[in-house]
Specification:
Elements (H helix, E strand, L loop, with lengths): L1 H18 L3 E7 L4 E7 L2 H5 L3 E4 L18 E4 L23 E3 L50 E3 L23 E5 L21 E3 L10
Parallel strand pairs: 2-4, 4-5, 6-7, 7-8
Antiparallel strand pairs: 1-2, 1-3
Length: about 220
Amino acid sequence: MKQKFLSIWFALLLGAVSASAKDAYVYYMSSDHSLNFCFDDNKKNIQKNYTVYSLNIGSNEPAWYSIRTQVEELYFYPSSADYKPTSCYMWAANMKNLVRVMNISYLNTSNVANMEQMFDNCSALTSLDVSGFNTANVTTMAFMFYNCYALISLDLNHISFSSSAKTYGMMKYCTSLKTLKIPSTANIFASDACDGVGTTSSPCTLDHRTPASRRRS
């Protein structure tokens, strides 16, 4: 009898834990053309009304790539700060109608290794704040902002660059950039990282790197 009671208690406990387990997921809201990043226990409810996608890993194309031309806004819920993805590969790649990236400070990049093509060809995006990114574990930022030719300014001065990180084509053809701030370790950039950058008289503003305490861990 005691063993049966313990089995029932354990099953109930396991069920309660499963019910409250958090999931990292993305859903698309057609009413405002937004792609929303979440980490919570509400995935089942969201699935009733919206198309839900799992996050990609490694160099796998994200599942939401098929709706890339429909997306006008990326929105990161505060709960995103509690999840640590390992890849942001092609998250916004070829979203040619993307005009807003909201609450990106909640994106916890401390475990991210792959940022390749993250904003590749976001040709309508005029502003983007990635100053809070923790890139200590990033091994590739190749083509990260490639062909973002509407971007007016980009501040990378607070980002940590590994000498082994791939940066080829990183800001290539960002032809509207008026301000580009990069750390004093700019010599680690690949030779074509800034090709076609629109600022000709003063292409880069060098600043001291922000202390690591300001970056999300």
